[in-house]
Write a structure and sequence with these properties.
The chain is mainly α. Helix content is about 70%, strand content about 0%. The longest helix is centred in the last third of the chain and has 34 residues, at about 250-285. This is Nucleoside recognition protein.
Amino acid sequence: MRYFPILLALISLLSLGTLGFVGLTPPAMAAASQTETALRPEKVQAEGARGRALERARHQARENPSAYRSWKRQLPFWPRKTVLLIELAFMITIGILIGQVLEVAGWIGVLSVLAWPLIRLGRLPKAAGPAFIMAFQSGAVANSMLVTYRDEGTLNNRHLYTSVLVVSCLSLFAHLPTFIVPLGFAFGWMATGALFGVRFAAIALEIILVLIVSSWLSRRWSENRTDFNVPAQTAVIEGVRSGRPAFASREFWRKVWKRSQRTLRRLLLYVVPTFVVMALLEQFQAFDFLAAWLPGLFKPSFLPPQSVAIIPAQAVNMYNGAIAAANFIDAGNLTTKQAVTTILLGSVITAPIRTLRHALPTYLATLGARPGTVMAFSAQALRVLFVLLCTWVMVLVW
């Protein structure tokens, strides 16, 4: 039974790749559709100056892809998903190994200085620091590092779940700035400042509140932080660190690999089946259905009628919704303030789609079935709450 998770993962991976080569296609997709849904990015066409500015920005973002990305885009559905699954598993594996390398080498204390304000506010061990730094590059890698430390006893569950919520916020900072310049040219810099001011304020407030609650729980439970801190680097004796293998030695990497095996087995057990299920939902257009159905459930009276078209488009991606909003602004049917408010509330309404499609597979892979599901939806719920709060403040002030 020891190698059962690995065997299950390999069987699922081979089955996933085989589906692409045998050409398995559901009947609904095999039949030629007479009408294409407006939810697809390429079907939202710019109709005015603002929309064309966003369209140019979207095309520039897609120009000059690497040979690898071009090759990946040309693959059929299931082979492409197989490649994406391998990429996800590789990134999470890298995170697990990086976490162990930092711990075995004794570098956690050095890197944690960069995240000291967050660690101090949340009364977290130093091991959370490197993960917070890595979150700006990859949330999946950062969460993998945190789980590795929890498995080794460096973090407890409170530290882990608090840090995972903080990582989910920090990882957003790496993605939001890419939209600021194109939206600034399309909507104006005041509207763009309001839009991203709300998003950044919501992220900052969520981080602060999560860390304050973490600190309160630590004091209430009389938790001793020193029990979880990684020991400081020992003194150098005859050119070699006492108690730690040399970085380039075989013993060092053997220790890293031995500590990583438990987390890697859980990764293979959860990530492959979850990814296959998400791919099946995408192939059978379940996410397209949700994108069209969810906005119809929420029709606040204060939103303009045009939101019925903007929010489903936004469910596909940010550019899609922004171009739809820009078309209405150019036609004089929508003010800039209404467009910004609609886009912000649209991100709230479409949050369940993002959770299922993007966040859930990674959380399940790193945290396991039950905690991964709880954390994926908790992270989105908190984000929705603070976006609503900051949007309400924006409407009152602007």
